[in-house]
Amino acid sequence: MFEIFARYLRTHIEISDDDLELIRIGSIEKRLRKWQPLFQDGDVWLTNCFIASGCLRIYRIGGDGKDHTFRFGVDNWWVTDVESYNHETPSRFDVEALAASTVIIWTKKKWMELMVTIPVLREFQEALMARSYEASQRRIYSLISSSAEEKYNEFQKTYPGVFNQVPLHMVASYLGVSRETVSRLRKELTKRK
Amino acid sequence: MFEIFARYLRTHIEISDDDLELIRIGSIEKRLRKWQPLFQDGDVWLTNCFIASGCLRIYRIGGDGKDHTFRFGVDNWWVTDVESYNHETPSRFDVEALAASTVIIWTKKKWMELMVTIPVLREFQEALMARSYEASQRRIYSLISSSAEEKYNEFQKTYPGVFNQVPLHMVASYLGVSRETVSRLRKELTKRK
DNA sequence: CGATTCTTTGAAAACAGTCAATCTGTGTGG
DNA sequence: CCACACAGATTGACTGTTTTCAAAGAATCG
């Protein structure tokens, strides 16, 4: 499975076989069954976590007892709670596998060491952070400016891989609307075309 | 006005007077009158921009012709469209001053040079990016999980400085609701307590 | 097959948006 | 100093959308 990560990394940076081997040695591969939790509310995220295959969901149970999907992650995505990772404080998120998945994990300590040893990895990390930040800005704009219908369409276009494999009520809580609304929206949209 | 930036920077990093002087020399100070635009839709953001004093607003006119406030910026905040800055593409945002303001500007080129010359500035930049990203994650969670009333209260608590000096319809578009809704919410809340 | 989970549907209620009119405060020019 | 214009805020009536609640219909899994 490390092969998947190696291919992914090489689409973004140039890296020698030796350096890649260092990264491999520092990594841990973890397999998750469907519905298996990867992190739980209260854990401190002292790891970097890459999804080699499968599908995960980051969510939180709100004060109202409702389940809010913060985001999904599929093949070749990363999953982190930056706040917990940066400040080493307990996370308020849960993460679970929505399908059998394989993740590759580095401890924060190991990852830091690797970034020192392999400068290009630090550059990669920075670029990744920048892309993530851009994506979050786009999502914020969509949340404040789009109707439920527009958000639904955007989501479907932007994450076709996610869309077709996760339960609808999770899509609903990702968009910030009720599952019934998404169900009706879907019906309306298929009827229209 | 550079003094304000100097104080700000020194609350975050340790930096010598010499390095600070380098940063000062590379900067441009710009004064804005109320309602004066700083950037306009179509501009490429080749600058880093620090608000020494005043209040700015980043917004976009949506496809529906409506005004969406992406965010505000007050004293000691930065204002950037990361997507435009990183990829050097035209921004789709406008920025205007909501009050007489002073901003300190560095060109991207100059800022890059400074980060090479002054390693601690690069660290600062990374920490800033991390904090900004964390803030955007919190806002996303709030947008998908809170009611209009909760968002209104959170905004008021989190940004008291902004809250009391910007027109209400801009607060409304920041929260993603209509100005009438915010007006009624406010009435309801003052009545209740 | 039976149990469980997910999705759909209907009806009612709550909520937010629109439109239009009015009110308020500010600042300008006479 | 007043009258007026203007922008922003509020309010009411109405409309449309979304949520909630409850029930029933698919789909999935052991």
Under CATH, the topology of the domain at 2-118 in chain A can be stated as Jelly Rolls
The helix/strand class of chain A is alpha+beta
CATH class of the domain at 2-118 in chain A reads Mainly Beta
Strand runs of chain A, count: 7
End-to-end Cα distance of chain A, whole Å, is 41 Å
**Largest interface, counted by CB within 8 Å of the partner chain's CB:** A-B, 28 and 29 residues
Rg of chain A over CA atoms, rounded to whole Å, is: 18 Å
Which stretches of chain A of 5+ consecutive residues score pLDDT under 50?
none
| Order of the strands making up the biggest sheet of chain A | 2-6-4-5
Helices and strands of chain A, in order, run as HHEEEEEHEEHHHHHH
Q: Report the sheet-strand fraction of chain A.
A: 15-25%
Number of helices of chain A: 9
Shape of chain A: globular
- Average pLDDT confidence of chain A is 93
Corresponding CATH superfamily of the domain at 2-118 in chain A: Jelly Rolls
Percent range for helical residues of chain A? Answer: 40-55%
- Biggest sheet layout of chain A: 4 strands, antiparallel
Give the oligomer, counting copies of the same chain as homo and different chains as hetero.
homodimer
> Could you say what the CATH architecture of the domain at 2-118 in chain A is?
Sandwich
